[in-house]
Amino acid sequence: MYNDPSQGQQPPQYGQQPYGQQPPPYEQPSSYGQQPYGQQQQPYGQPQYGQPQYGQQPPPYAQPQYGQQQYGQPQYGYGQPQLQYVSVWPRAGAVIIDGIILGVVFYILDLILQNASTVALILEVILYFGYFIVMEAMRGATLGKMLLRLRVVKTDGSPISWSESVIRNLLRIIDALPTAYIVGAILIWTSPLRQRLGDRAAKTVVVRR
Known about the structure:
Blueprint: H1 88-112, H2 117-139, H3 143-147, E1 150-154, H4 162-170, H5 172-175, H6 182-189, H7 197-202, E2 204-208
Antiparallel strand pairs: 1-2
Helix pairs in contact: 1-2, 2-4
């Protein structure tokens, strides 16, 4: 139909494009490398969340992180050092120091009870075993072990109780055979944990502080 120029240009109907204009493409996707409208483009070189950076290999599956123990491995407390088992000669030095201390006590006791030697002998035996049992149960070490920085503990590193102290020290009678702790020394040399018979029965070890 012929349009009268005097009537002016009519506005386009709803949904119709003006003459000479092309309709926009329907949801045309963005070209390669361009982000859709409303999304922010990641800075160049910044990795996406969860993606490894260039040159880095992803960790293998089930690999333990730093500071984590693998299954089946013994775990130690934070800052807890590994036990250092003590062999024959440091322990022999501690026994010699303890023997000197007890010898002085026995000498004084003999002077006091010089007319009752049997009573003095019984008291000396009680004092001998009582000294080792009480000191190791309460302090974990005798005076000789303290001077040489040794300590008696359980095989797991925890302090011993009265029962462990009684067992390991009563078996000194066998470890001291035939003389000068020969049996005890042989057992210590042949033990991976450096245990004499009393230690094996009580499940204890002598370690460095």
